[in-house]
Design brief:
Elements (H helix, E strand, L loop, with lengths): L7 H5 L7 H15 L8 H17 L2 H10 L3 H4 L4 H6 L3 H8 L19 E2 L3 E7 L1 H6 L1 E12 L14 E3 L8 E8 L2 E8 L8 E3 L11 E12 L8 E4 L10 E2 L3 E7 L6 E3 L2 E9 H6 L1 E7 L2 E7 L8 E4 L15 E8 L6 H13 L10 H11 L1
Parallel strand pairs: 1-10, 2-11, 13-17
Antiparallel strand pairs: 3-8, 4-7, 5-6, 9-11, 12-13, 14-15, 16-17
């Protein structure tokens, strides 16, 4: 479904650099234009209204916007999101009340009944660990966590029987209390959550014995999560509505997974590139050699050319990390480090001296040939 969705910024007619105020202003304008009650219930307008409300629901939330900007409609982040449920959390009356206030809305739907917002369960934050190579190519990870789920015995209502749920007499089932008071400006009406039913609109007289009237119970959930390629250490994945439930008349929270990437013994990450260092001897650098190095694709033979200098960089094209939303891999960059021996034997020292003297790089008094010549010139 994600493939059929329009970009949220495009839906609201904004650029990615827009501010929170721009998002709110754009939504206010489009909500007025497409609201079904303004368009005589036109189905096309209703779909447009849902689309802009969906875009607003994500972009107006700082965390969801960050996730969307980073991963777009990535399966691991947006699979399973029921945007109709996101939309339903607003409600037509609530949206009008949010942006237009008083008059038409006043916190009520067009039918005159209070649009009660469904409660939302809490988010769950867990951690998982993956290998360095799994972060490069993506992987599937089975996770298990504790979660509050709707009680099956009572269907999440919290009551042992249907008769055990009665309408709150205090608020008449609306979940809110309206208080009218006279001021010098005239009569003012305020609403507040009903203290008798805590906004539920109903009271449980016969609690379910399985959940003790809460509507939810503790459970252990197991699921497989798609971790995308290119994910960084400590990045978070958000799986919508896999968090805690508060029963049947609620929207579950989200599951937030912090991904930790294990360190690799020889490889480092730099953007989409992989970095490694190879140590070679002076003789190997001078004469050239072949050796094997570890890459993300396994062991690979590396040719060192004769005369290779310290800090030489060798690039293995398309041997790096597959970044998010791209099929083009980064490179594997190998830095060559020429190690100077510190434990030479007497014979080895003698051989090196002869080599250096032959190239006029060393003299019997231990001075460099060229500096010795300059020094002698000044003595004349």
């Amino acid at each position: 479904m994600a493939g059929n969705k329009r970009d949220y910024y495009e839906v609201l007619g904004l650029s990615k650099e827009c501010s929170a105020a721009d998002i709110k202003q754009a939504y206010r304008k489009l909500a007025r234009q497409y609201h079904p009650d303004v368009n005589n219930g036109n189905p096309e307008s209703e779909e447009k209204f849902k689309e802009v409300s969906e875009a607003y629901a994500v972009l107006s939330n700082e965390e969801k916007r960050r996730q969307y900007d980073t991963y777009g409609f990535n399966g691991s982040l947006f699979d399973g999101i029921n945007f109709d449920s996101v939309f339903s959390e607003f409600g037509f009356g609530d949206i009008f009340n949010m942006f237009f206030g008083g008059g038409f809305g006043s916190g009520f739907s067009s039918s005159g009944t209070r649009a009660r917002r469904r409660q939302r369960g809490t988010d769950i934050v867990i951690e998982t660990e993956i290998e360095f190579s799994e972060s490069a190519f993506g992987t599937k990870k089975e996770i298990e966590y504790n979660v509050d789920v709707s009680c099956e015995k009572c269907g999440g209502t919290g009551a042992a029987t249907i008769e055990g749920i009665i309408t709150c007499r205090e608020c008449g089932g609306s979940g809110h209390i309206r208080v009218s008071r006279n001021t010098f400006l005239g009569s003012m009406v305020t609403t507040s959550v009903c203290g008798s039913c805590n906004g539920a609109g109903t009271i449980i007289k016969d609690p379910c014995t399985n959940c003790n009237g809460r509507g939810y119970i503790k459970s252990r959930n197991k699921m497989v999560v798609d971790i995308p390629s290119g994910i960084n250490n400590r990045d978070q994945l958000r799986v919508s509505q896999r968090g805690n439930s508060l029963g049947s008349d609620s929207v579950p929270g989200d599951l937030i997974i912090t991904v930790y990437v294990k360190k690799h013994a020889t490889l480092l990450r730099e953007g989409a590139n992989v970095i490694s260092t190879v140590n070679i001897s002076f003789a190997q650098a001078a004469l050239g050699t072949k050796l094997e190095i570890e890459t993300l694709d396994g062991m690979e033979e590396l040719s060192i050319k004769p005369g290779t200098q310290p800090a030489t960089k060798i690039v293995l094209k398309s041997k790096g990390i597959i970044p998010l939303h791209s099929s083009r891999r980064g490179d594997h960059i190998v830095f060559i480090n020429v190690k100077i021996p510190t434990d030479l034997s007497a014979d080895e020292i003698g051989l090196l001296k002869k080599y250096a003297e032959g190239r006029e790089e060393y003299t019997a008094d231990g001075q460099s040939g060229i500096f010795s010549s300059i020094k002698n010139a000044f003595k004349r």
